[in-house]
Amino acid sequence: MKDNPAPHFPPNRDAALARLDAFAPKAGRDYAAGRNHDLPGHPHVSTLSPWIRHRALTEAEVAAATLDRFAASTAQKFLSEVLWRTYFKGYLERRPGLWSGYLHGLDAARNRLATESGLRARWEAACGGETGIDAYDHWAAELTGTGYLHNHARMWFASIWMHTLELPWELGADFFLRHLLDGDPASNTLSWRWVGGLHTRGKTYRARASNIGKYTGGRFDTEALGHRLATTAEPQDGPPPPDPIDMPEDANLPGGRIGLLLHEDDLHPDFLMARGLDPTGVAVLIAPAGRSPLAVSRQVHDFTRALAEDAATRLGATGPVTEDGAEIARWATGFDHVVTPYAPVGPARTALDALDVATIRPLRAWDAAAWPHATAGFFKLKGKMATILETILQDMGV
Predict the structure, then answer these.
(1) Which CATH number is associated with domain 258-362?
(2) Which one, out of 14, 155, 238, 352, has a CA that is 20 to 30 A from the CA of 24?
(3) pTM higher than the cut 0.85
């Protein structure tokens, strides 16, 4: 079978809206029937995640476009996938120690690479797509070449990384963050933990040759896969998740001369304008290099910067689009206050916290409605779907 061209991700909001408009008519039963199939060109899924990850397109906008065409019950599978992203965001926000724990585990795994030659050789083969496991090697090449993988392929990939290649999960999560255009601290970290039996304690995910064959259109040698893949999937070692911390508080908008500081986690601040924000100036702080202590791919850097520049252009920004906190600090001296959309746990938040600038960080209505329910399993939050969907217009600034 000859592969169709991979999805292309133009780094601007107009492209995201066009992709949403094209997908929305398929968000009902078509999506439910085909969503697990990892086929060339990814015709059965939205491929919106690179824009949603940076909120160049928001979850509320995606849900609104879906509900314009379908009842919530008809589009429940797709809306649930949108809420999974929100759930993981809230879960990590309420348990920030999981992110710091991941970073400590990554440091320990990298130290092992320096001293264990066998581990390093397996890691290099896994990153280079040279394991001899044809499906896995295909996905590694697709990831590094396009910056994207189908969600089902990500699960198979993570399972093979941990359970077949016996590599530390933190190194795999890092590999994804270095190459995924939608590399998100919450969704990525917690999905890897889920596959490894750390999120839902003891419940692991094992890649099976029959499942891969069923959902990939027969592109791979399932007989050979059956001989290569692990037949067991033992849970990874790690402490249980900590208890959740309190919800972050919303912030009121101040008066005076306001500088609006965007960041790579939220590049469409219409909710702030709807609350009365009238900024005197706009700048954007990005932090793609903070996604890994290793080299983050050039396409991730370029995509993030171009999306940020697109947002700056839409808002008529006169301030910088930069990774330099000192440059933002100099820009901020021209304002009485600096307002920035609330940044969840991850590199963008770390970069904001490191600024020598006090910032006011309002919270989106969508997050404020969802995150209180991200304290246990996903189905607690899913049970509040109707309440969360009621915030759509408010979150969109309508």
Answers:
(1) 3.40.50.620
(2) 155
(3) yes
